[in-house]
């Protein structure tokens, strides 16, 4: 083989390597850009700025839209946007694609609670815990609420304690713990939790749990004024309509 041919082959290989390198660099940059856009979309979803979140989700590259991260954010966006029918269809599609995804399973359960299918929602929360080995804080909180609706206070309390080990409880977690300590008659602990809730002004803006907190507040007031329980239903009634199985 002549030196000229070898030179041409080496040159060809060099150009191939160069283009592969350029392509990989471009792909990495595109992936990095998509991750940044997804991060912004998530931020707007959590701040309930739905239109802004939608705009960023639309900017995501088609290939990135096949990732679990995108499916999680898209499903959460549809739920926050109150597009329940679209959300249900998308969650079914998501779980078919990612059947072991803890976030998607838990979120689908939250959606089913909104739709009134409490039994199926609780099944999904329980499945979430099995897959995550009790490492999903949201799953622990949500399934504990299912257990409260079944009057299994002992197990529900254990799950809330496990959720607290994973980090500070979100608003729904505090409401659930407040419910449990009221059922157990622990007035001091109920007062402590209520002070934490009242100290966070952001909680007052969450309308989804307004009625539940008002219901629990009536129980706190009753306990502080020594009213007998005959005037009120059990604190569990504050969430049972949402999780009745």
Order of helices and strands: HHHHHHHHHHHH
Give the termini separation.
80 Å
Coarse morphology: globular
Cα-based radius of gyration, to the nearest Å:
25 Å
Largest sheet: none
The low-confidence parts are 15-28
| pLDDT averaged residue by residue | 85
Beta-strand percentage range: under 5%
Structural class: mainly alpha
Helix percent reads: over 70%
Topology:
Blueprint: H1 3-46, H2 50-58, H3 68-80, H4 84-97, H5 102-115, H6 118-132, H7 137-149, H8 153-165, H9 171-183, H10 187-199, H11 210-224, H12 240-243
Helix pairs in contact: 1-2, 1-3, 2-3, 3-4, 3-5, 4-5, 5-6, 6-7, 7-8, 7-9, 8-9, 9-10, 9-11, 10-11
Keywords: Repeat, TPR repeat
Pfam families: TPR_2
Protein name: Tetratricopeptide repeat protein
Describe the structure in brief.
The chain has twelve helices and no strands. The chain is globular, with a radius of gyration of 25 Å.
């Amino acid at each position: 083989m002549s030196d000229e041919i070898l030179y041409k082959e080496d040159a060809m290989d060099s150009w191939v390597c160069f283009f592969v390198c350029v392509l990989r660099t471009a792909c990495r940059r595109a992936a990095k850009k998509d991750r940044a856009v997804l991060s912004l979309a998530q931020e707007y979803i959590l701040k309930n700025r739905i239109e802004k979140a939608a705009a960023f989700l639309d900017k995501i590259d088609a290939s990135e839209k096949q990732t679990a991260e995108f499916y999680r954010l898209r499903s959460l966006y549809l739920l926050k946007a109150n597009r329940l029918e679209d959300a249900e269809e998308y969650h079914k599609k998501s779980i078919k694609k990612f059947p072991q995804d803890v976030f998607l399973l838990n979120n689908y359960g939250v959606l089913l609670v909104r739709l009134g299918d409490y039994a199926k929602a609780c099944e999904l929360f329980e499945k979430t815990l099995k897959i995550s080995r009790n490492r999903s804080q949201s799953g622990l909180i949500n399934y504990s609420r299912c257990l409260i609706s079944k009057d299994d206070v002992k197990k529900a309390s254990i799950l809330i304690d496990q959720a607290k080990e994973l980090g500070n409880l979100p608003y729904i977690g505090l409401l659930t713990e407040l419910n449990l300590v009221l059922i157990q008659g622990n007035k001091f602990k109920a007062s402590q939790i209520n002070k934490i809730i009242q100290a966070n002004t952001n909680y007052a803006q969450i309308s989804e749990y307004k009625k539940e907190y008002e219901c629990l507040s009536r129980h706190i007031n009753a306990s502080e004024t020594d009213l007998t329980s005959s005037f009120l239903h059990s604190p569990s009634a504050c969430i049972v309509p949402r999780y009745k199985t």
